[in-house]
Protein 1
Amino acid sequence: MSLVTTHVLDAAKGRPAAGIAVRLESGGKVLAEGVTDDDGRVRNLGPDELAPGVYRLVFDTGEYLGPDGFFPEITVTFRIADAQAHHHVPILLSPHSYTTYRGS
């Protein structure tokens, strides 16, 4: 399993959000890319180890939410302090809001 994983849940529809492109970035470089599966998850996003530092997950939500969605892209910036710990960063998404937290 990769060090960073994510999933997107569509709070308005009450189901996983499939087909959302996700990028893991650091220092302006793309480290990994993936797309949420039928369960709304990206299980293999990036290497098994990442150096401590600041990273970003960028979610391309525009196509999923369509023209009425307020957030065409969501960027979550987070810090990795323990290079060997698993970091799960989920998104709860709706057309006009989103929430994130450090998951398990």
Protein 2
Amino acid sequence: MSYLDQITSPTLLLDERICRINLQKMAEKAKRHGLNLVPHFKTAQSHIVGEWAKEYGIKEITVSSIKMAEYFCGQGWENIHIAFPFNPLETKKLNDLAKNQSISVQLINEEVTKKLAAELEFPVGFFIEIDAGYGRTGVEVSDFGMIESIMRAAKVSGKLKFKGFYLHAGHTYYEPDKNAVYEQTRAALSMLKNKYITEYPQLITRTGDTPGCSVMEDFGDIDEIGPGNFVFFDMMQVNLGSCKMDDIAVALAVPVVDIKKDKKEILVHGGGVHLSKDVLTELDGSKNFGEVVYLKENGWEIPLQRSYLKSISQEHGIIKASDDLLSKVKIGDILGILPIHSCMTADCMGSYLGINGQQIDHAEGD
């Protein structure tokens, strides 16, 4: 049975072929630069996608929460890293995970480090998260006092093992000069490595943003990369120059429920609860909540004339339709929407339908 015959309501489609190409390209890039690829699975959140990743030599993953780490435990990963400043209220859960799974966390202050040092029952690795310009979280790159207080607090315990420094250069999402951002990242991590490598000879450095990891070719002496969104990509990444539209591996299938040819508008069942409300701004100032594609038996096709989702509410979406789309579509048809932010769309939907008809798991759907 065609995957199209299974769709009666908003459904997130996943093209395995495109996803695998994205995984392979990033794995080959990492290998070319002598880097270990530890992808951030906050995007896919899927055991099945994880099995695909293993076929390209990926052995470790990053997640964004204890809950997500629990989901991926027992799947054969050599290590699962939780890339979020550790929440001390979840120390018991961390102990439960560490019984049977190699796991690491991120630390940014002495208080949480002391709590873990006192309460851990099993070995846990940790990275010190560094802020070198993004401004969201992390220890300031020049705050050696804080860095060393975390290291000292960890040494009290034989269970808390320092792994290295983690830096998420998230400002590549809004800074136009990505080369300058990455020069800052390379310099920060190299300085820290040179400063502490004698005391910690196994120290590693990791960075992990999709825009930078996709376009940069000079990683200096960085050891590991951990991008996430590259697995699926999305219209935001297209807008940033990280990929092309045909690299996007997911599309939201939406039923057409009304057509207003005089207004050049198409009403679809698909809104904020499906796509999230991430948005791009068109040149004329209008909003774009997703790009329309034509669904075919073997995937989707990018039309020559653009149509896009110009507004959404909770369940509704209104498409600004091209003449070509209006000439082809009828009520009851199904269109595809390439999401602005695939991570959020996947999280909203909680499952995938492969274009081969396969049901594909997602952590939020279990």
Protein 3
Amino acid sequence: MGLRVSAADNVSFDAILVALKAAAEETRLRILYLLARGEFSVSDLTDILGQSQPRISRHLRLLCEAGLVERRREGAWAFFRLAGGGGLPAPLRALVDALPQDDALLARDLERLAQVREERARAASAWFARIAPEWDQLRSLHAPEAAVEQAIRDLVGPAPVRALLDLGAGTGRMLQLLAPQAQRLVGVDASPAMLQVARANLERAGITRAELRQGDINALDVERGAFDLVVVHQVLHFLDDPGRALREAASALAPGGRLLAVDFATHEHEFLRTGHQHRRLGFDDAQMAAWFTAAGLEPQPGVRLPGGGADGLEGGLTVVLWLARDPRVITDWSPGDRNSGVA
């Protein structure tokens, strides 16, 4: 009998008993203690706990079968995190939270956890350093990142967001930007290397509740109708069929939810196609509106941020924030949720 609930849900006696039995073993309780602080691979947990890979895998399997932990594939790797976005039944959450951090065994676990995170950060930084010159060249062509991010904040608004989905999560910046107002954070990217960068950046920022998944934006493996804000930031110009990706994104929206697409307006910088793998040289408003409509969404007023140009290139790149809303009426949210990121 699996258990996939949050502490606020009603939990049966039998479900709590299964959960407590699964956790009532030293290594498994230590694993839950660690997973309360983020998601980790079997290799990570092997290094932290100083145990063999088969032993750690067996404990993880038992925790998964009990519904306390979930497994996500990321290329050839698998990452584990607490099930249900970090929710544990209240009795077990209380036990995990009550574990003393000054216990010698747990203190060593936390010390090794810090080492694993440092290694992740070094690997991510080394990989990102190799592509940094390309990023710097692109940044020089359009509005400052700070201006773009402020425009995103303004357009999203200050209201809480129940569930945020970031498609093409990249370095995890959008998750960091909107984390203060989002109850749940899910990021999807096709690149395992980028996900490693995102994971390191989020951990450095103290954000351990984000769910990072490797996936195809054209065939999403996420809950349908579950997110009240979906962000597609600087991704569409890499795609052969942006309209298909927007339809997939729209399918993840909850009734009344919003889809925010951030990308370039049409331009003539052909070098971005030949040197940076851009499949599309920007988009115009009519095309975006048509794609939104085809996805069953209602276009909303957006924002344009002209670029200043650099390196002798005239006109720069204009960044556009296109917004659309799912027109379905919200019927299943509590009164307190009706302002959850949906203006």
Protein 4
Amino acid sequence: MSYIMVDVESDGPIPGDYSMICFGAIVVEPSLSRTFYAQLKPISAQWIPEALKISGFSREETLTFAEPQTAMEKFADWIEAESSGRPLFISDNNGFDWQFINWYFHHFCGKNPFGYSSSNLGSLYKGLVKDTFVNFKHLRKTAHTHHPVDDVRGNAEALLQLKEKYGLKISLG
């Protein structure tokens, strides 16, 4: 099994009505060297300027990005090549990130290589330390910039800390 940390930036709150603009992924392992990044052309005429602003792109820029089907097929190929065994989806906001990745995979590729489930890094940390009022973000080394590769790297660093410092029993790789 391979844990793959994923982060999504979008131009609105839900897939279909709005678009996934870019996303990043990283195989969670000590080297943190295997990453994926894609920028996707919008699939909808709807977009929320404040949501798009978080990604740092203008609407005009996003219209030049890759076709979503091409990007998702490349991501599926990367997952197949880079994961050992079943790939496991994890993110710091899986309610948001999962909905986009799952919808886009099913819509453009007919299936999701991650299957039907995802994990939430924040919930994992809260359970591990037995405190629902804390967050894991102090465990990141890489700054959270809203560039998906920076964000997945920081979140993967935090997950590695859960294993190393807190004794989380997890198989990575």
